[in-house]
């Protein structure tokens, strides 16, 4: 027998009402648990898009990209990301290592990506040889201290440029534009009473 028939006709409405509240509470608990589980996975999972941050956890930006009218003008052709000396630097996207060595006594790693894009990372002591295929998030080296113009002890200068091809000329681009940060939005639960 169920509880409604034992309760008698005079208490049937109260039992049914209590049962609805109990079921609603169970659904709310299940919904919140599922939502928290989904939120947790969303935070842990890689962000959408082809490119990600070259430092983890997500670094603060010490100096932004300067858009130049002409490539030959002086300026800041990348972003400086705060890090720590010895911190692992990751490939921002899938590609092939085309340079791993010194430029003007600074260690640099450069990666060619599909679509004629090249990213550069300095000062990074390379951990990958030229010709290596790397995936997004592959360790490519370790950050060294002493990037000029940086307010903190160690900054990663992360640059990006589109290579010349066809009728296009080489163009420096803001590497932050490669990132597709997706904001997590929680929708309110509707109350049906």
Summarize this entry quickly.
The chain has 193 residues and is of the alpha+beta class. The protein has 2 helices and 11 strands.
Mean pLDDT: 75
Instruction: Give me the strand/helix succession.
Output: HHEEEEEEEEEEE
Helical fraction equals 10-25%
The rounded Rg comes to 27 Å
What is the terminal separation in angstroms? 28 Å
- State the helix count: 2
Extended strand count: 11
Main sheet record: 8 strands, antiparallel
Structural class: alpha+beta
Into which percentage range does the β-strand content fall?
Answer: 25-35%
Unreliable residue stretches: 1-8, 25-48
Name the overall outline. globular
What does it look like?
- Strands 1, 2, 4, 5, 6, 8, 10 and 11 form an eight-stranded antiparallel β-sheet that branches.
- This protein is of the alpha+beta class.
- The chain is built from two helices and eleven strands, in the order ααβββββββββββ.
- The chain has helices at 3-7, 12-44; strands at residues 61-63, 79-83, 88-90, 95-103, 106-113, 117-122, 124-126, 133-134, 139-143, 154-162, 171-173.
- The longest helix is centred in the N-terminal third of the chain and has 33 residues, at 12-44.
- A hairpin with an 8-residue loop joins β10 and β11.
Tell me the layout of helices and strands.
Blueprint: H1 3-7, H2 12-44, E1 61-63, E2 79-83, E3 88-90, E4 95-103, E5 106-113, E6 117-122, E7 124-126, E8 133-134, E9 139-143, E10 154-162, E11 171-173
Antiparallel strand pairs: 1-2, 2-10, 3-9, 4-5, 4-8, 5-6, 6-10, 7-9, 10-11
């Amino acid at each position: 027998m169920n509880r409604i028939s034992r309760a008698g006709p005079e208490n049937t409405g109260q039992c049914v009402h209590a049962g609805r509240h109990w079921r609603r509470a169970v659904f709310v608990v299940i919904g919140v648990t599922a939502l928290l589980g989904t939120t947790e996975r969303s935070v842990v999972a890689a962000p959408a898009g082809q490119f990600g941050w070259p430092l983890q956890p997500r670094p603060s930006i010490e100096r932004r990209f300067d858009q130049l009218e002409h490539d030959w003008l002086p300026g800041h052709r990348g972003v400086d990301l705060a890090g720590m000396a010895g911190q692992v630097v990751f490939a921002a996207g899938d590609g092939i290592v085309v340079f791993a060595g010194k430029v003007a006594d600074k260690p640099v790693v450069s990666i060619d990506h599909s679509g004629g894009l090249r990213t550069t990372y300095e000062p990074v002591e390379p951990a990958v040889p030229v010709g290596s295929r790397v995936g997004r998030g592959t360790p490519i080296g370790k950050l060294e201290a002493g990037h000029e113009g940086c307010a903190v002890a160690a900054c990663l200068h992360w640059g990006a440029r589109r290579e010349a091809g066809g009728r296009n000329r080489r163009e420096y681009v803001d590497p932050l534009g490669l990132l597709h940060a997706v904001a997590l939005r929680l929708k309110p639960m509707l109350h049906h009473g």
